[in-house]
Write a structure and sequence with these properties.
single chain, alpha+beta, OB fold (Dihydrolipoamide Acetyltransferase, E2P), 2 domains, 5-stranded mixed barrel, about 20% strand, de novo design (two linked rop proteins), globular
Length: about 240
């Protein structure tokens, strides 16, 4: 059955000599992996590889077969033409880092159009904006809404934030956050990407908050591991 859908590329790996396996987050069916046969073999095939850069937004037509692990793409074209996401060195490092996280945490093979719309809009914002130094922090914080552990905002007056429970509390626990990270967390809750320009952070503050966020992911997602690209990301970005 031929099915059309939008898709965001999460990862790609070479398979055999001339094939690729591409993992995408699709608008209609969640996470889907595709086998692209012979895409690395010819000059014509190589031109198609350019479509599958990390976090590219595509329109695809797939030949869907139920209960098949790897699906096949019959047609592909760009849904969004990025201006800087893959050419700006710093943005490219963000793309590599975030795609690794998304590939790890997005596993559901079911439709979630709210999550897809969030990813779609956030990536367009990153591509178009020039003040993006804190983008990844807000992106990951907002992502927790769709993963089921966004901080409880009903009571934010607590002097600590408990990473294990996602609640603001008055008593310090094993994984409690205070100080600058607590202040920044409260500031980022509920703001939009367009408001990030007003948040001024040093490299040290940015790295500290990112480390806190990654621990938050680890505590709530049992199989989550820190991205392998983290060290490179911190070197390039900070």
């Amino acid at each position: 059955m031929l099915v059309k859908t939008n898709a965001i590329v999460l990862s790609k790996i070479k398979y055999r000599d001339h094939d690729l396996i591409v993992k995408c987050y699709t608008k209609n069916r969640g996470t889907v992996s595709y086998l692209l046969r012979g895409v690395l073999k010819s000059a014509k095939g190589n031109s198609k590889v350019a479509y599958y850069q990390l976090l590219s937004q595509l329109q695809i037509e797939e030949r869907y077969r139920a209960n098949q692990t790897l699906q096949n793409i019959t047609e592909v074209k760009l849904d969004v033409v990025y201006k800087s996401l893959h050419t700006n060195v710093i943005k490219s490092s963000i793309v590599m880092f975030l795609s690794e996280i998304l590939s790890s945490v997005l596993k559901e093979e079911e439709e979630n159009q709210e999550l897809y719309s969030y990813l779609e809009a956030a990536l367009v914002w990153l591509d178009q904006d020039d003040d993006f130094s804190n983008f990844h922090l807000l992106f990951l914080l907002n992502l927790t809404k769709y993963l089921g552990f966004y901080p409880d905002t009903l009571q934010t007056n607590g002097t600590y934030f408990n990473l294990s429970t996602g609640h603001f509390e008055s008593i310090k626990q094993n994984h409690s956050v205070s100080g600058e990270n607590l202040i920044l967390l409260k500031r980022l809750l509920g703001i939009k990407f367009d408001e990030l320009h007003a948040v001024k952070l040093s490299s040290k503050q940015r790295q500290s908050f990112l480390s806190m966020l990654l621990l938050y992911f680890e505590l709530h997602l049992g199989d989550f591991r820190k991205p392998k690209s983290l060290a490179i990301f911190n070197q390039v970005f900070n």
